[in-house]
Amino acid sequence: MHDKSPQRGLFLYCADKIPPMSVPAENLFDSAYCCLLITDPLAKASAAADLYKRWMQTGLSLDSSSMPVRTDQPGRPDRPELVHPRKVPKRSFNSPQGRVRFAHAVAHIEFNAINLALDAVYRFRNMPDDYYTDWLRVASEESSHFLMLNSYLEENGSYYGEFSAHNGLWEMALKTDTDVLVRMALVPRVLEARGLDVTPGMIVKLKAVAANELAAILEVIHQEEIGHVLIGTRWFNYCCEQRGLPPRQTFMELLKKHMKGSVHGPFDELSRTRAGFTREEMLDLANLSNNRNILDNNENTIA
């Protein structure tokens, strides 16, 4: 695990608590798929971190006789109950219980992010070795994020699965599972990038109520998520270059096609710039967001 714990208690997980999941096969794709199907969250987190180490230390074969299959639902525990986003309980930073609910929501995002990274490895073949290195690292770091939040929940009398959650991240994975270019555009550069916009404000609010441990966890997550979105940017641009497509125009076309042009600001320009967004892309997003806000206001007025 990382040695950069912001303060005591962030990395209570230890290797002897849950031994690394033994993932069969010396083939990377089959191994990633095995990890993807693990249902126990702690075992999945351990297996994902172990798979990254195996890849870095000895390498795994990229030869596979099997083709990727559609994964309607990755391995997950019976709980949390998955509901429509509007039915997810409201969360507040002003009470210990509200902060536990918030931590649970973020833990669910990080658990899904492990699956998304593993699926990016398993599903998309014939990419450069660096692509698999990048996404295995993401899977390992997302596992670390989940374990930090899981420890926080346990320390505060809760557990992952206590509260309901939604399945929006994996629904987007299914919508993008046939094209690596579309996946790189819409998952890291849209859904995960939204976290870059909102997390700094959440950290400020948590510190204002002296929830310093949870704020420190979010600070770690925020810095590493910038790197994850940057990886998405890198491979989106790579795919565009391979296909002779202009990245800026292609990204906007995908937003309009798959997101119906619905992009919500405000945007954290510093974080997004560090994550590879160009000045021109930031202007495009601002224009989309402004147009959407005008539409929302008109709808509210009519209502």
Description of the structure:
The protein is mainly alpha-helical and 303 residues long. It folds into two domains: 11-64 and 75-166, no CATH class; 176-303, no CATH class. The protein has helices at 28-37, 41-57, 96-123, 129-155, 168-175, 180-208, 212-243, 247-258, 269-274, 279-302. The termini are far apart.
Percent of residues in helical segments?
55-70%
Radius of gyration: 19 Å
Count of DSSP-assigned helices: 10
Q: What kind of sheet is the major sheet?
A: none
The parts where pLDDT drops under 50 for at least 5 residues are: 1-22, 293-303
| Principal-axis shape | globular
Number of beta-strand segments: 0
Strand content: under 5%
Count of domains? 2
Give the tags.
single chain; 303 residues; mainly alpha; 2 domains; 10 helices; globular; disordered N terminus; disordered C terminus
Write the layout of secondary structure elements.
Layout: H1 28-37, H2 41-57, H3 96-123, H4 129-155, H5 168-175, H6 180-208, H7 212-243, H8 247-258, H9 269-274, H10 279-302
Helix pairs in contact: 1-2, 1-3, 2-4, 3-4, 4-7, 5-6, 6-7
What's the gist of this structure?
This protein is an all-alpha fold. The chain is built from ten helices and no strands.
